[in-house]
Design a protein that fits this description.
The protein has 163 residues and is mainly beta. The chain is built from two helices and eleven strands, in the order αβββββββββββα.
Length: 163
């Protein structure tokens, strides 16, 4: 279903029965995308969709991920950006970004965690998704010292354990 600008600005979308739709499911372990068909619409915000056995796993989480709001600084040849993380794991972070970010784009990063020296390395944008008017950027840590990654993993375990 392709929406024009007026439809995109609407608070609710109306999915017609029989329409094709792409669904993205986020779980602690993975991100799954699947194509489906709308079976029934209930009101303006509930949709019943057909589920298939065929789907694409976009990302399988290798590390514990926790909700966390910490500063991250990204730098490339053409862009410098500071953000607050939405979640954090040993494999990467998610943060609110803007249209300057492209999938596959590489950055040097500096993650500022409490009680640790700055965590530095290189990473890549692996996905971007619009949600609630924000552009969420999924950023994967590609190059970083093993000790630094272990600090992030330990930090996430401790945060989850104390929650």
């Amino acid at each position: 279903m392709v929406l024009d600008e007026e439809e995109k600005s609407s608070a609710a979308y109306r999915f017609e029965e029989g329409a094709e739709a792409e669904m993205t499911i986020y779980s602690p372990n993975r991100v799954i995308k699947l194509n489906s068909i709308v079976i029934e619409t209930i009101g303006t915000r509930e949709v019943c969709m057909e589920l298939h056995d065929e789907y694409d796993i976009i990302q399988r989480r290798r590390y514990v991920r926790t909700k966390a709001s910490y500063s991250i600084e990204l730098k490339s040849e053409t862009l410098m950006f500071k953000a607050q993380t939405l979640n954090l794991g040993g494999g990467g972070v998610c943060f609110v970004g803007n249209n300057s970010f492209e999938i596959g784009q590489k950055f040097e990063f500096k993650l500022l965690l409490p009680n640790f020296n700055d965590i530095e390395g290189e990473g890549i944008v692996i996905n971007k998704l619009e949600a609630n008017g924000d552009l969420l950027i999924m950023f994967n840590f590609v190059e970083m010292e093993k000790d630094a990654r272990n600090k992030v993993i330990r930090f996430c375990f401790e945060k989850e354990f104390n929650a």
